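Weekly modeling sync, notes
Attendees: S.R. (lead), two postdocs, one rotation student

Agenda item 3: backlog of single-chain predictions. S.R. asked that every request posted to the team notebook include the full sequence so nobody has to chase files. The rotation student volunteered to paste the first one in as an example of the format we agreed on. Action items at the bottom.

Example entry:
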Amino acid sequence: MSKALIFDMDGTLTQPRKTISDEVAHQLRRITSTHKMYLVTGSEYAKVEQQLGADLILRVFDKVFCCNGTVVYNTNLDLDAEGVSFEPEMIHQVDLTDHYSQADINHIISVLLKYAAKNHTRYKTGTFVEWRRSQINFSLIGRDCTTDQREDYAKWDKKSGDRDKAIEFFEREFKGYGLCFRKGGQISIDITRAGWDKTYAFENIAEKPDKCVFFGDNIIPYGNDWEIAAKCGKHYVVRNPLHLLEILKTY
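Predicted structure, as returned to the notebook:
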């Protein structure tokens, strides 16, 4: 019997960077009474709240793991208590600057930006590098892209292996740095220290991995769901939120 359900967000609970549907939210609320519920995402908490909403987060999830599990929020709050804050409490965080000098960080970012400048994508929109303290999020098209541009790049990436090629280059370029490169969502590469993939979340999850079920869309080589799916007792490769709805109905 599974004791905990662990969910990715973009592409699983929601369409990329979109808000959660009422149908998926309903199913999550339905099963929260029988399972521990965790969210593990590459995004920062502000994006989680934008896409899921504060009320759903507090009523469904016991903990929210941002930046691939390296920033942890306790969301298991007593919503009936009087005179207390209903703000999620950050209970754990690590930082790349604890392991790399500013000169190292500057060099990493410079290499990323040079690669983006030379890469031939159809669109270049801006915000190619997003600093997340425990993670650097890198996008070859830029995080300011529109939904249509995002979809166009996702199709191109699938056909050309654009991000795979970038990751292979960075692994050679930064050999010895102890860095890990994984594809996040449709357009990004998550850059963290080796070991800071989504399995890092188990440092702050009471249940053993073999008692957990993981739901994610990026369970592919170089995907940021790959390692945690392999470690859990069971996992589902989710095509989209509609597919997730069908799976959740069996719980």
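Discussion: group reviewed the output briefly. The mean pLDDT is 95.
Action items: rotation student to repeat for the remaining queue; S.R. to check formatting next week.
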